[in-house]
Structures are given as structure tokens and as C-alpha cells.
Amino acid sequence: MLALRNAPRWWVVSGADFPGYGHNFELLPVLTADQLRAVERWLGTELPEEYRTFLLQVGAGGAGPDYGLFPMQPPGPDTPPATGHCALPFRPELTAELDAHEWAEPRRADFPDDDAFAAAFASWDARHGELYEALSEGTLCISSQGCAYYTLLVATGPQRGTIWEDVRTVGEGVVPVELRGKPGHVSFAEWYLNWLEHAERRAWDTTTAPPPRLQFTSDRRQEPSREAANSDGGIARQPPGSA
């Protein structure tokens, strides 16, 4: 990873060079076995093996796809209690249910008066919130893609250990990540190594003109956009409803 930081075009790699968010090809110190067990006790579930190995042998966050991996640190005395969200069953089928529910939003014209419409909408809205939150149950959010897009690692169920995208912000639910030319679900190691291979090609490529480096005139921090991460690293983006 240090070699990538010293590459002639390290800054063109997606998410490497962005004030306040860029990972700069730096990794956090690895966790000890005791620290990892403390994390898992707090989450209420054992993490998938490839991710556990990464935390123990590579780094506990930092350099990685998009804007890097979120830090993973053991809970401290001031850490709030875990919600148990990560240990719940992962139910990707809820994406289709949420989509159908959104199409069934009550319309005022279908009700005899405002009170009846308000009651129906309140019931619909409550169920919408339940489905929206339930979509990420059984997962751990490990990375931000910018613009409220996130990358999830499934921690429970048949899809345990695979990588999914949280694209609820644009109404597409939670969908599996796919690599170009490789059908099927993608594991954490495949996802990370695919990014690393792509990053190496980008950072060491001196045969093409690089894009202009982003310039910032203040230290104001804002959430990065997907466009600021200037390449998708070989990820095949799922179209809506394809999961």
C-alpha cells in the first residue's frame, strides 16, 4: 500500500485524494484477537471470515474501494449499546417489497375525506419506514461511495460474506455488487482485491494524460460525490429491480 502512495499518479485513484474523506492509501493498525472479539460481542455476531482476516492482518480501516473502509475499533466505555442490527437476518427480498409498497402510496382522490386519507397515509408511511430500515439488517456498513450511497458486508444468512450496495437514497433498495466478467455474488476479498488491482493500474499508468487534480480553496469539508471518485474500479452497477 505504501508503494501505491508513492506512485506517480496515486491521486487519480478513486477516493484517494479528497480533503476530509480521501484515504491517501493509508491503513489503520490491525486489531488484536481480543479487540476483534470485543467488536463481535458488541455487534452480537461473528464477522465473515475474510473480513476478520483483513482486520487482523491488513488493517482496521483506511485504504480501500471508493472513499476507503470505515474504521473498525473495539467499543470503549463511552460507546453506546449496540442496536443488534448487524445480527438480524439479512432479507434482500425486502427490496422488491419496498418497491411494491412505494407504488401503493395512498392518493387523496381515493378517499372520501381528509381524515380517511391521513389515516391511510400514516399507516402506509409507518410500514415504509419499517421496510426501509429492515433492508440493511444483517449487514455491516463498511464504506461510503459518496452522495449517500454505501457499501454493505452481509453478516448473516445465506449471503453472508458478500458485498452489496445500499442505494436506498435513489429508491433502488439494497442490491448485490457484481464484477464485470464475473457473474454471481462477490466476496469481501474479491471486492477488495479487484479494487487493489485497478488502483495499481491507475496509479502507475504514465501512458495517458491524467485528469486534472481537484483543487480546493478552503478547508470546508463536505460529503464527496460519486463523481469525485473518478472511476468505478470494474464494478458492474446493478440496474433497478435486478437483484
Automatic annotation (TrEMBL):
Region (Disordered) location: 204-243
Domain of life: Bacteria
Pfam families, A to Z: SMI1_KNR4 (PF09346)
Residue span, Knr4/Smi1-like domain: 29-194
Coiled-coil segments on the chain, per record: none
InterPro entries registered for this protein in UniProt: Knr4/Smi1-like_dom, Knr4/Smi1-like_sf
SUPFAM superfamilies, sorted: SMI1/KNR4-like
Annotated protein name in UniProt: Knr4/Smi1-like domain-containing protein
Organism annotation: Streptomyces gilvosporeus
